[in-house]
Amino acid sequence: MKPTLMVRNASVFKGCLNAGQQSDLVSELREIARIAPPFSPQTPYGKPMSVKLTSAGDFGWLSDAHGYRYSETHPNGARWPEIPQSLLSLWFLLTGVSRAPNSCLINFYGEGAKMGMHQDRDEKCFDWPVLSISLGDEALFRIGGATRSGSTESLWLSSGDVVVLGDEARLAYHGIDRIRFGSSGLLPKGGRVNVTLRVVD
Ligand code: MD6
Ligand code: FE
Prior knowledge:
The structure is a single chain. This protein is of the alpha+beta class. The protein has helices at residues 19-35, 85-95, and strands at 5-7, 10-13, 52-57, 60-64, 67-71, 103-109, 115-118, 130-136, 139-143, 153-157, 162-165, 174-179, 192-198. Strands 1-2-11-8-13-6-3 form a seven-stranded antiparallel beta sheet, with helices on one face. A four-stranded antiparallel beta sheet has the order 7-12-9-10, with no helix packed on it. It has a single domain, classed as Alpha-ketoglutarate-dependent dioxygenase AlkB-like (Jelly Rolls), CATH 2.60.120. It binds N-[(3-hydroxypyridin-2-yl)carbonyl]glycine and fe (iii) ion. N-[(3-hydroxypyridin-2-yl)carbonyl]glycine is lined by residues 107, 115, 120, 130, 132, 141, 163, 165, 174, 176, 194, 196. Fe (iii) ion binds next to loops.
């Protein structure tokens, strides 16, 4: 499948998941959240993140006093649930790479939650892309280059949109400046869910 547009070398697939696929995915994410309850991690600097998160797959992403890292277990000690088959299929369809992702991070944004500008660089190898799915309320996504300084571009991501950061964009700085709380009817209580798939090791 071809991206709808490229923004700073990121591939953007607008409306990639239809309404039925979005609600099916929400059901699968609810099941993951039931097994692995979402939590608000502390940054290594001691500030709580405004998003809640959980994971599926062999590795889940955490942040605590030890820093940002991947862990084979939830903070409660249990292994993470499996990555849903529908997400693996979407990964192969859109990225065209040979390896399956072994980490699926799920971020929950309530009213006022945002994500500061960052690079995804806790993985061992940057040859694999990162695929990101937006669900629920619209979000203002900002992306720049591989250094923190320099110009950025912003675009609104809607429910069902997918962004792939690979190749030149793999280490691009990016973040979520704000969400339009209540702009989507997908989640009964409003808010936004972002799902990212990665090859971690
Ligand atoms: C978000 N996204 O959309 C945050 N990371 O809520 C990310 O941090 C992200 O969209 C890597 C690749 C694509 C992304
Ligand atoms: Fe990221």
